[in-house]
Design brief:
The protein has 4 helices and 5 strands. It is an alpha+beta fold and 136 residues long. The strands form 2 sheets. It has a 3-stranded antiparallel beta sheet with strand order 1-2-3, covered by helices on one side. The chain has a two-stranded antiparallel ribbon with strand order 4-5. A hairpin with a 2-residue loop joins strand 2 (22-31) and strand 3. Helix 1 packs across helix 2 (93-101). The longest helix is centred in the middle third of the chain and has 27 residues, at 61-87. The chain is elongated.
C-alpha cells in the first residue's frame, strides 16, 4: 500500500469588522483533509476579489502586483511541501505553515553564539582576553 497525501492551497478573503468594503486575504493549506490558515497581511476591496479564481480581477498595477504576490506564496508553499516530503515522512498542514513562516527552525541569538564561543575557547584563550568577550 502506498503512502498518498493530498495537498492544496486556497486563497480566500474575510471581511474586516471595522470596514465592510475591505477584505483581508488569507491562505488555507490543506493536507489530507486537515486545514491550517494564515493571514497574508494584504487587503483588497470587495469589488476586486474573484472568489472562484482565488485572485483579484483587473489589470491595474496594484492588482497585478497582488496577484503576482499570491503566485509567489503559492509557489513557496509548494516548494516547502516538497522539501518536507523529501526530508520527513509525516506531513501536516501545520508543519507546512510553520516551515513556510520559518517557525520550525531554531535560531541562535548573538548572545547564544558569544556564550558558545567563550565556553569552547576558555582553555585556549587567556583570562584577560575572555573577560573582554563577555556580555554585560
Amino acid at each position: 500500500m502506498t503512502d498518498f497525501t493530498t495537498f492544496s492551497v486556497l486563497f480566500f478573503t474575510r471581511k474586516l469588522n471595522r470596514n465592510k468594503k475591505e477584505l483581508s486575504i488569507y491562505a488555507r493549506i490543506t493536507v489530507n483533509g486537515k486545514c491550517s490558515e494564515m493571514s497574508l497581511k494584504r487587503k483588497t476591496s470587495v469589488n476586486e476579489w474573484d472568489s472562484s479564481k482565488g485572485r483579484l480581477k483587473g489589470t491595474s498595477p496594484r492588482i497585478k502586483n497582488l496577484n503576482s504576490y499570491l503566485d509567489q506564496v503559492y509557489s513557496k508553499l509548494l516548494d516547502t511541501h516538497k522539501r518536507i516530503l523529501d526530508k520527513d515522512n509525516l506531513i501536516t498542514a501545520d508543519k507546512v505553515k510553520a516551515s513556510y513562516l520559518g517557525l520550525d527552525e531554531e535560531h541562535k541569538t548573538l548572545k547564544d553564539i558569544i556564550e558558545y564561543h567563550n565556553e569552547k575557547m576558555k582553555d585556549v584563550l587567556k583570562w584577560g582576553t575572555l573577560k573582554n568577550c563577555s556580555l554585560p
